Amino acid sequence: GNSVTQMEGPVTLSEEAFLTINCTYTATGYPSLFWYVQYPGEGLQLLLKATKADDKGSNKGFEATYRKETTSFHLEKGSVQVSDSAVYFCALSEDGGTSYGKLTFGQGTILTVHP
Amino acid sequence: DTGVSQNPRHKITKRGQNVTFRCDPISEHNRLYWYRQTLGQGPEFLTYFQNEAQLEKSRLLSDRFSAERPKGSFSTLEIQRTEQGDSAMYLCASRRQRNTEAFFGQGTRLTVV
């Protein structure tokens, strides 16, 4: 079956530091890959996505590249802000056959950014 | 587009009681998903509806759980004879069609005491 593994957290950084959150996946087919973010007290929001190998998703200064050869989709940001403090989830979905596009999530990484 | 709405936001119930949650998806989204999220974990898939048809159920969905989506609009998730292990955040998501973004509601937090 499909699975997603994220780096252990929590991650604590100072403002303007570089962020990497590692994500690797196992899938039976050719999934789409996602990063979702959950701010305190809010629902899950899509941060970025990539639908095929070598695609780069980007949004709000965050980037992630779909690496089929290493089955990875690491999240990066060059300079984090206090407002980026949240929980980040890596996820995959497959829309073919009977998969119906359900999402398989990693366990989440808590990011705290200090001024 | 008012977003995915879930009610109630919080529910505290005694062990053994039945509870029902409601999800109102974004209008015209024919695909609806339920997930469960426990503390420190990512959401886990429970069940999927395409219009009114329930097409997939996870093994996590025991016989005490039932979900419906009458007329392909809102959906309900009922848990019978609740157990302490049912305490979790229950999330609903909807999407329009294949390969489009899934939008999540804010969830219903269930506490079984």
Write the layout of secondary structure elements.
The complex is a heterodimer of chains A (115) and B (113).
Chain A (H helix, E strand, L loop, with lengths): L2 E4 L4 E4 L4 E3 L1 E4 L5 E7 L5 E7 L5 E4 L2 E4 L9 E3 L8 E8 L9 E3 L3 E6 L1
Chain B lengths: L4 E3 L2 E4 L5 E6 L6 E7 L6 E7 L2 E5 L7 E4 L6 E5 L8 E8 L7 E2 L3 E5 L1
Parallel strand pairs in B: 2-11
Antiparallel strand pairs in B: 1-3, 3-8, 4-5, 4-9, 5-6, 7-8, 9-10, 9-11
Write up what this structure looks like.
- The complex is a heterodimer of chains A (115) and B (113).
- With 115 residues, chain A is mainly β.
- Chain A contains no helices and twelve strands.
- In chain A, the strands form three sheets. In chain A, strands 2, 5, 6, 10, 11 and 12 form a six-stranded mixed β-sheet that branches. Chain A has a four-stranded antiparallel β-sheet with strand order 3-9-8-7, with no helix packed on it. A two-stranded antiparallel ribbon of chain A has the order 1-4.
- In chain A, β7 and β8 form a beta hairpin.
- Chain A is globular, with a radius of gyration of 14 Å.
- The mean pLDDT of chain A is 93.
- In chain B, β5 and β6 form a beta hairpin.
- The model of chain B has no long low-confidence stretch (mean pLDDT 93).
- The relative contact order of chain B is 0.33.
- Chain B contains no helices and eleven strands.
- In chain B, strands 2, 4, 5, 6, 9, 10 and 11 form a seven-stranded mixed β-sheet that branches. Chain B has a four-stranded antiparallel β-sheet with strand order 1-3-8-7, with no helix packed on it.
- Chain B is mostly beta strands and 113 residues long.
- The interface between A and B is medium-sized, with 24 and 26 residues.
